[in-house]
From TrEMBL:
Domain of life, per lineage: Bacteria
Record-linked PROSITE patterns: ABC_TRANSPORTER_1 (PS00211), ABC_TRANSPORTER_2 (PS50893)
UniProt KW ATP-binding keyword: yes
Record's keyword annotation contains Transport: yes
Annotated keywords: ATP-binding, Nucleotide-binding, Transport
Source taxonomy: Bacteria, Bacillati, Actinomycetota, Actinomycetes, Kitasatosporales
Protein name: Macrolide ABC transporter ATP-binding protein
SUPFAM superfamilies from the UniProt entry: P-loop containing nucleoside triphosphate hydrolases
GO CC terms of this entry: plasma membrane
Organism in which the protein naturally occurs: Streptomyces flaveus
Length: 232
């Protein structure tokens, strides 16, 4: 363990969804440039933790500090600006825009950032290629397989060059060969650019691509979370 200041740190987070206590004091840190795998059984609070860390959901208690700023206390406008410019998110359940084709979904964050359409399409196309879905540019989400949608979501999360990528089961609908292809593309990109990644997965082979693993159990991060030997 190094003693450098983490890029993103959540301390003692609690979060209830109605009567369900999804997080019960979860503490986790991400150092700049590392890939952290978050594992745990279904319902253990993984997605809730990711949403809190990415500033999508505010925790009930605890703190989320990103690059010296308290995300959990940031006004909504600054928070959404920060999310748009510094974070990329792959949601567990798609969230591609149904009316837009694959290429338009991937190009959208660039166009929102002021990149011209032709340039945005060119870059989107490169990202679709990296994730192995070139040739499916014109498909709309309703016409894609689950695995294709996940690859398009991954391309969309990375296209703007975010500092942190949050990916919630990005290979959940892929077979092992396709998982390997997507993970190789992800790891290659983030190592090249020094991007920090929080990756939720239940697949040990996918977790093995990470530098460390944090295991969630009933809304807390277990003490036996490990440094993985098999870092790339
Ligand atoms: N919007 C919601 N409304 C009510 N309960 C919710 C909501 N979101 C999550 N929960 C509950 O909170 C708990 C944690 O959910 P969460 O989605 O964080 O788990 P998870 O570890 O991501 O599970 P999975 O592996 O199945 O995706 C679960 O018991 C779930 O039923
Ligand atoms: Mg989940």
């Amino acid at each position: 363990m190094s003693n450098e200041v983490p890029l993103l740190a959540a301390r003692a987070l609690t979060k209830a969804h109605g009567r369900t206590q999804a997080l019960r004091g979860a503490t986790v840190e991400l150092r700049a440039g590392e890939i952290l795998a978050v594992t745990g059984t279904s319902g253990s609070g993984k997605s809730t933790l990711l949403h809190c860390l990415a500033g999508i959901v505010r925790p009930d208690e605890g703190s989320v500090v990103y690059d010296g700023r308290r995300l959990d206390q940031l006004p909504e406008k600054q928070l959404s600006e920060l999310r748009r410019t510094e974070f990329g998110v792959v949601f567990q359940f798609g969230q591609l825009i149904p009316e837009l084709t694959a290429i338009d979904n991937v190009a959208l964050p660039l166009m929102l950032a002021g990149v011209r359409r032709t340039e945005a399409h060119k870059r989107a196309d490169e990202w679709l290629e990296r994730f192995g879905v070139r040739g499916q540019e014109e498909l709309r989400p309703g016409e894609m397989s689950g695995g294709q949608a996940q690859r398009v979501s991954m391309a969309r999360a990375l296209v703007t060059g975010p500092k942190v990528v949050f990916a919630d089961e990005p290979t959940g609908a892929l077979d092992s060969l396709a998982s390997e292809q997507v993970m190789t593309a992800l790891v290659h990109t983030v190592r090249e650019t020094g991007t920090t990644v929080l990756l939720i997965t239940h697949d040990h082979q996918v977790a093995a691509y990470a530098d460390r693993e944090a295991r969630l159990l009933d809304g807390v991060v277990r003490q036996d979370s490990v440094d993985l030997e098999v870092a790339q």
